[in-house]
Design a protein that fits this description.
Structural class: alpha/beta
Strand order of the largest sheet: 2-1-3-4-5
CATH class: Alpha Beta
Radius of gyration: 20 Å
Bound molecules: 2-acetamido-2-deoxy-beta-D-glucopyranose
Strand content: 5-15%
Number of helices: 13
Order of helices and strands: HEHHEHHHEHHHEHHEHH
Distance between the termini: 37 Å
CATH architecture: 3-Layer(aba) Sandwich
Largest sheet: 5 strands, parallel
């Protein structure tokens, strides 16, 4: 038995070494909604925008960029944490070109969802169109780097996918159509199938390393609490339970894809648990206010209602879990991103 033992160890070591040879992540490629949109909506006719003050007041240079935050968003922070650039440019922004996009690019669009009918609500970029832009990007990258280098970059890159909240809050629970067609559980399954199709599509296009973020505790977003009048503005439990159930299904789908698609390294990133901890005990994280956002009264303002003329905006967004009534502050984004890097994305570091 003793002589058999050594070759096995050797094999394990060789495999480990081979896995490491895969190389560091050379680029971060982003798909999704406002949680990761770095400004694509500035370049399409929609009201779902944030390229005006006080958005961006704590961003480098104090610039409003179209990020739905006072500062940086998780995709920026994760890129930074991976040793890549500190902010990820929006693909539609003519200020940038392929040499910038070669280390990170964002196709996300605030207000969009897995479901085609979700992006119709605020006339934003549907997910299938984000993929079309990505295909266009691939062509430009191949022209810029050459076929071989571009292909390697596209397969070593980390794809960050953060989407789904709008399908429930903007679409299912707000408009009559999907509710008349699906129970909420059926709608979850419908979205999970779309998510699986999306993963397969990216895989077919050469993507291998993917991070799929789950839903936040949707019922605790200030806007949801504002409408929970009977519940005295507590978190809406039903919405949180839907998020938990959707996340469980998403995690299962990711495991299934990893089994089905050779070479795929997809991870489910849970944001629910850490986010709920921050909301439940903000002081543990150095925060003070979790019920309302910083911008305006913090109860309903976002997008154009969160503007420089709103007199109620707080003094210090760093004390707030939420920046506006729907989106986390930079400080919360930092805690959630650090947790994602440490807990779920460590193998890509
Ligand atoms: C990208 O833009 C930079 C600066 O604006 C310029 O120097 C560079 O040549 C451009 N690269 C490509 C590939 O167009
Ligand atoms: C969404 O729209 C695109 C473009 O029209 C279409 O190709 C796709 O099949 C649609 N998806 C669903 C699930 O209807």
């Amino acid at each position: 038995m003793a002589n058999l033992y050594i070759p096995w160890i050797f094999l394990v070591q060789t495999l480990t070494l081979l896995a490491k040879c895969r190389g560091k992540v050379p680029a971060v490629i982003v798909f999704g909604d406002s949680s990761v949109d770095s400004g694509n909506n500035n370049f399409i006719p929609t009201i779902a925008r944030s390229n005006f003050q006080p958005y961006g007041q704590d961003f480098p240079g104090g610039q409003p960029t179209g990020r739905f935050c006072n500062g940086r968003i998780p995709s920026d922070l994760i890129s930074d944490g991976l040793g890549l650039k500190p902010t990820i440019p929006a693909y539609l922004d003519p200020m940038y070109n392929i040499s910038d996009f070669a280390t990170g690019v964002c196709f996300a669009s605030a207000g969009t969802g897995y479901d085609n009918t979700t992006s119709d609500v605020a006339r934003v970029i549907p997910l299938w169109k984000e993929v079309e832009y990505y295909e266009e990007y691939q062509k430009k990258l191949k022209a810029y780097l050459g076929n071989k280098k571009a292909k390697k970059l596209l397969s070593d890159a980390l794809y960050l996918i953060s989407i789904g909240t709008n399908d429930f809050l903007e679409n299912y629970y707000t408009l009559p159509d999907r509710q008349s067609q699906f129970t909420v559980k059926q709608y979850e399954n419908f979205l999970i199938n779309l998510a699986a199709d999306f993963v397969k599509k990216l895989y077919a296009l050469g993507a291998r390393r993917m991070s799929l973020a789950g839903l936040p505790p949707m019922g605790c977003l200030p806007l949801e609490r504002t409408t929970n009048i009977m519940g005295l503005h507590a978190c809406v439990e039903e919405r949180n339970n839907v998020a938990l159930e959707f996340n469980r299904k998403l995690k299962g789908m990711v495991a299934k894809m990893n089994n089905q698609l050779p070479g795929l390294e997809a991870v489910y990133v849970d944001v629910y648990y850490i986010f709920l901890q921050i909301i439940t005990r903000p002081s543990v994280f150095g925060l003070e206010e979790a019920r309302v956002g910083c911008c305006g009264t913090g109860r309903f303002e976002m997008s154009f209602l969160c503007n420089p003329h709103n007199p109620f905006t707080c003094q210090d967004a760093n004390k707030y879990v939420f920046w506006d009534a729907f989106h986390p502050s930079e400080k919360t984004n930092q805690i959630i991103s650090d947790n994602a890097l440490k807990t779920y994305l460590a193998k890509f570091l």
